[in-house]
Specification:
This protein is α+β, with helices and mostly antiparallel strands. The chain has four domains: 116 residues, no CATH class; 85 residues; 105 residues, no CATH class; 299 residues, no CATH class. The chain has 27 helices and 13 strands. The strands form four sheets. It has a five-stranded antiparallel beta sheet. Strand 12 and strand 13 form a beta hairpin. Helix 1 packs antiparallel against helix 2, helix 16 packs parallel to helix 20 and helix 16 packs antiparallel against helix 23. The protein is extended and about 105 Å long.
Length: 642
């Protein structure tokens, strides 16, 4: 009542009163507690400040917590300290941080709350931030609580949930409240209920909270431990006895170093325990001399194997939970096991997404090679350079079209045209003269690939060039903390599906596809039916090269565009074709899926070593083709016979 009357009196001294004056009125009521706060007395100040509802209260609390508040002893008011000049300090308004007064330097006293007071202030600030109208401010407050969880945050967090309108933030508050109550709840029932509510939560902070509850320490004693026993501790014999020695429950084993030190400490003239020093040149002699010292009480006796076994048998070795409440640890253990199962499922889902993404990339890179290899039997070592040409085509387009979405729309068909023309030119000038001569074809295309790489270096240089994706492809789709995939990889996956459908349509629903299939299965019969195999080979090679160019644009959106980028995919492309079955779209799809899944599965055991994963994958494929040399989907016709 006295506080209320004093506040009313101060309010009536001047009218109208600004918000800063109202704040100063409250601070003057508690001037002594504000100037020299204590862990117990600060609670009353904070309660009155919170009850006022003034918008300047959180600003003051932040400054108070950061030790930026000073008191002017001349007028007794509180300010933020400003600059000092010629012994005069500029005092700033708490809310606006504008100059409000000046005072002599010796009249300004710093307000320095200790750690306990600052924690109370921090808890009050959390309550403000958790109810801030700005959703981002509320999220920041939750992130701050997650970084530094404390029991004092339970009540403010619980109080902010009822008025939370944002469903996602409300869910986050409830999750965080369960984590806090699980660790710091006042009753066993509340903690167990909160722990059980975390059974479907796979976030790292929830798992960390459960793991902290289940933290254990080793217990070695002759008696049963009095705490919450997690289970017996199984140790090797040597380590078990070492634990007993460390706990002063058994004598230490005499080491050669201890023997040496004891002998040196008991040297008398030219002998030790009646043994001449010159005779102590063997381990047996030194042990015998040490034994005589132990018999005389001048050294610790040797510990026998029987004594070691008896000491170990006479003591218990257990792990004991740091948490004393057995009901809490039982609930935490059951919940953590459930969470671990869900984590495993989500990690598997994430690995599956990565594998599908990698498979789609391999499919795009290999489908053109599969068509040319299957129809024409040509081992095209320059296929990777067509991928590189497509990526550089996308880069050149972006130099003239700054709208990345529009540039991508232009680059995809342009890359197809550029690489298709280059492929047709190579087929007309080189490949057509080397049919049925696979070794010469391999060497010729390998030489072309080197020439194309050098040409790219001469034009674009050796540094990587950026191929920027549109804004709508930036970032990633986050399903939860463990499962996510970038939008670029989703786009590549959709592009791969689109090409799969397009190729199936071309091969099965168009005249070109009919002729390609005819030439693939029986070129002689196709020629006798009026189909020109030479023309089909040219068009097929152009189609395969054009698809490689489109794959280059897609790959360049997330990989570095360099003259050597195609070489990174040529090996995987050939493996995809061989494993899937040459000349078959479905076989290429199956091969890409198998290699993508296999590589990611191997990388899962050692994520930091992708080279080892590729090595093991190649070994697996070598074994695979021993049992199925024609691939997963074998093709009949010229490709199969070759």
């Amino acid at each position: 009542m006295l506080r209320l009357l004093l506040a009313l009196a101060l309010t009536c001294l001047a009218a109208p009163v600004a918000a800063q004056d109202d704040l100063q009125s409250i601070l003057q009521i508690h001037a002594e507690e504000v100037a020299s706060p204590g862990r117990r007395s600060v609670g009353v100040v904070v309660e009155d400040l919170l009850a006022s509802g003034l918008p300047s209260v959180p600003i003051f609390l932040e400054a108070w917590q950061d030790r930026d508040i000073v008191q002017n002893t001349e007028d007794g008011l509180f300010y933020v300290e400003g600059d000092e000049q010629d012994g005069t300090v500029t005092l700033l308004d708490i809310a606006s941080r504008e100059p409000a007064a000046t005072a002599p330097e010796d009249a300004v006293e710093e307000v320095r709350p200790n750690g306990g007071v600052r924690r109370v202030i921090g808890a009050a600030l959390v309550q403000f931030r958790l109810s801030d109208p700005d959703p981002d401010a509320r999220r920041d407050a939750l992130a701050s609580i997650a970084r530094r969880p404390d029991a004092d945050q339970i009540d403010p967090l619980r109080g902010s949930i009822e008025g939370e309108e944002n469903a996602r933030i409300r869910s986050e508050k409830e999750r965080l409240l369960n984590i806090l109550v699980a660790r710091y709840g006042a009753t066993t029932e509340a903690r167990v209920e909160a722990i059980e509510a975390l059974s479907g939560v796979i976030t790292s902070d929830a798992r960390a909270a459960l793991s902290q509850i289940l933290e254990t320490e080793d217990w070695v004693s002759a008696d049963a431990p009095g705490g919450n026993v997690a289970g017996p501790l199984t140790l090797p014999r040597a380590e078990a006895y070492a634990r007993l020695v460390d706990a002063d429950l058994a004598p230490p084993i005499v080491t050669p170093a201890a023997i040496r030190d004891a002998l040196l400490a008991n040297v008398e003239g030219d002998s030790v325990a009646g043994t001449p020093l010159v005779t102590l040149n063997t381990d047996a002699a030194r042990r015998a001399a040490y034994d005589r010292l132990a018999a005389d009480g001048r050294a610790d006796p040797f510990v026998t194997d029987a004594q070691i076994d008896d000491s170990i048998a006479a003591h218990r070795f257990d792990t004991v939970y740091a948490e004393a409440d057995t009901a809490v640890t039982a609930a935490a253990l059951q919940t953590l096991q459930s969470v671990d199962r869900q984590v495993t499922l989500n990690q598997t889902a994430d690995l599956t997404l990565d594998a599908l993404s990698l498979a789609s990339i391999y499919f795009l890179a290999a489908i053109g090679l599969a068509i040319t290899f299957g129809v024409m039997g040509v081992i095209n070592m320059a296929h990777g350079e067509f991928i590189m040409m497509g990526a550089y085509t996308g880069y050149v387009v972006q130099q003239f079209v700054t709208d990345y979405t529009l540039s991508l729309v232009i680059a995809l068909p342009l890359a197809f045209v550029v690489t298709a023309v280059a492929g047709i030119a190579m087929e007309r000038l080189v490949i057509r003269h080397l049919y049925h001569r696979p070794l010469e074809t391999l060497l010729a295309t390998f030489g072309i690939s080197i020439a194309l790489q050098q040409l790219a270096k001469n034009i674009f240089g050796t540094q990587a060039r950026p191929l920027t994706s549109p804004d709508w492809l930036s970032g990633q789709l986050v399903i939860n903390e463990l499962v996510s995939i970038s939008y670029i990889r989703i786009a590549i996956f959709v592009l791969a599906l689109g090409f799969l459908g397009l190729l199936l349509f071309i091969l099965n629903r168009t005249r070109l596809g009919l002729e390609v299939r005819a030439v693939t299965q029986n070129p002689g019969m196709a020629s006798s039916m009026g189909i020109d195999p030479d023309r089909i080979n040219m068009l097929t090679f152009g189609l395969g090269s054009g698809i490689a160019g489109i794959a280059g644009v897609a790959i360049g959106l997330y990989a570095q565009v360099t003259s050597e980028m195609g070489a990174n995919y040529i090996v995987q492309s050939f493996m995809t074709v061989v494993v899937g079955g040459v000349g078959n779209v479905w076989g290429t799809l199956a091969g890409a899926g198998l290699i993508g899944v296999l590589q990611k599965l191997i990388e899962g055991f050692n994520p930091s070593n992708t080279l080892a994963a590729q090595t093991y994958m190649i070994l697996f494929i070598i074994l695979f083709i021993q049992f199925r040399p024609r691939g997963i989907v074998a093709l009949k016709g010229r490709a199969a016979e070759g």
